[in-house]
Amino acid sequence: MDERLRSAAQSGNIDALYDLIEGDADVLRRIDEMEFVDTPLHIAAAEGHTEFAMGLMNLKPSFARKLNQRCFSPIHLALQEKQEKMVDDLLSIDKDLVRVKGREGYTPLHHAVSEGNVPLLSKFLENCPNSIFDSTIRKETALHIAAQNNNLEAFQAILFWIQKTRECHNMEKRRILNLQDKDGNTVLHIAASNNQTQMIKLLIESKKVDRNTVNQTGFTALHVLQVQAPVDSESVNTLNRAEEEVQAPSKFRRVRYFAKFEREIEEMKPDTINALLVVFALILGMSYQAVFSPPGGVLQADAGSSTKDAGKAVISPSVFVLFYT
């Protein structure tokens, strides 16, 4: 990079930038042709020179997504240097910068989560809802990262956003909460491995987490908890209670079903009820005929056929019992 351009970016001298372009029309293009490079936007973003950065981004939008030789974009550097005003200004031009993947596949959202910056991660999700689906090279989502870092506040903020947002339908919300990392671990597995009782409770209460998902070692979250030392009995009890609720007798569901069916009958028109009664009568008649008139008799000996089966019952004893028991 031209040292005059580097100096202009470091000082935020936008007039010097325009003078350089006037003297050399290709000064920015040559930088853009490089695969990994510190652009003037990287330098300005790290220094917090918003006016210079905005002017440069308007001239060369591609700089905002270019990675330097350490695999960081300008917005990554702004985050690392706590330049939140710069982050806001960059997003005002391109909200999808939240999804730019840098070193190890980390996005700005992942960085905010790892730092535990709840206001910033909330802002990222508000500006770019689809960033919740992004994962690192290890297939870790923002929730995985929050659980790994034992950051309950960030975890709660993300989970609350997932549950309340209208940007995702229920199937997508369920998918987000059950995504697995490269080792097959869901967020529930990670919370269990760290004995994060509160996180486990929050996930179970969401009603969208699959407790029976197994990781690559064949462990469910409950298995992961049970091999911890010491065993977190409160977390184990939470998962056990959730399992009991799922496996509870279905009689209550049947009661609710018949109550609903009764209400539907009460709301039917008389003609509809009469038609249903006719159908039920036909079904009952056919059932009666089948039960009380099962196939019977004995096999007859026909000319030209084997006579060894002649005289045997048409219906086998075992099937006969089914009809009369």
Descriptive tags:
ANK repeat, Serine/threonine-protein phosphatase 6 regulatory ankyrin repeat subunit B, 325 residues, Ankyrin_rpt-contain_sf, transmembrane helix, Ankyrin_rpt, single chain, Serine Threonine Protein Phosphatase 5, Tetratricopeptide repeat, 19 helices, disordered C terminus, mainly alpha
Short recap of the structure:
Pfam families: Ank_2 (PF12796), PGG (PF13962). It comes from Theobroma cacao. Helices cover 58% and strands 0% of the residues.
How many beta-strand runs?
0
What's the CATH superfamily of the largest domain, by name? Answer: Ankyrin repeat-containing domain
* Helix-strand category: mainly alpha
Individual helix count:
19
Rg measurement, Å: 34 Å
H/E element string? HHHHHHHHHHHHHHHHHHH
| Average pLDDT reading | 83
Measured distance between first and last alpha carbons: 92 Å
- Binned strand content: under 5%
Q: Into how many domains do the coordinates divide? A: 3
Unreliable spans? 246-250, 318-325
Q: Major sheet, described briefly? A: none
CATH class of the largest domain: Mainly Alpha
Shape, please?
elongated
Q: Architecture of the largest domain in CATH?
A: Alpha Horseshoe
Amount of helix: 55-70%
| CATH fold node name of the largest domain | Serine Threonine Protein Phosphatase 5, Tetratricopeptide repeat
InterPro entries: Ankyrin_rpt, Ankyrin_rpt-contain_sf, PGG_dom
Protein name: Serine/threonine-protein phosphatase 6 regulatory ankyrin repeat subunit B
Keywords: ANK repeat, Membrane, Transmembrane, Transmembrane helix
